[in-house]
Amino acid sequence: MHLTDEERKIGKDNYDRVIGTTRRDFFKDLGGAGLVTGAAAGAYYFGYKETIGGDRLRVGVIGTGDEGNVLIGALNPEYIEVKAIADPRPYSQHRAFHGDQYSPSAAKARKGLMAVYGWKSEDEAKKNVDVYADYKELLERDDIEAVIIATPLFLHDVVAIDAMRSGKHVLTEKLMAHSVRQCKEMARVAEKENKLLATGHQRHYSILYANAVDTIRRGVIGDIHHIRAQWHRGNLPGNDSWRPDLPTEMLTPSQISAAERKAKANGGAAGLQAWRDEYHMLRELVKWQAQLSKLKNDSKAKESDILAWERKVAQKEAQMDDYGLDATNYGYREYQVPEGEYVCSPIEEMIRWRLWDRTGGGLMAELGSHQLDASGIFISSQFDGKTKVRPLTVTAVGGRHIFPPNRDVDDHVYCTYEYPGRGYFEDNDPKTEQVADENKKVVVTYSSINGNGYGGYGEVVLGTEGTLILEREQETLLFGTRGTSTKVSVNKENALTDSYETGGAAVAQSVGQLASADVSRGYTEEIEHWAWCIRNGEPASTLHCNPKVALADAVIALVSNQAIREKTRIDFDPEWFDPNSDAVPEGPAPKKADDIKVSVT
Question: Region Disordered: which residues (predicted)?
Answer without folding.
Answer: 575-601
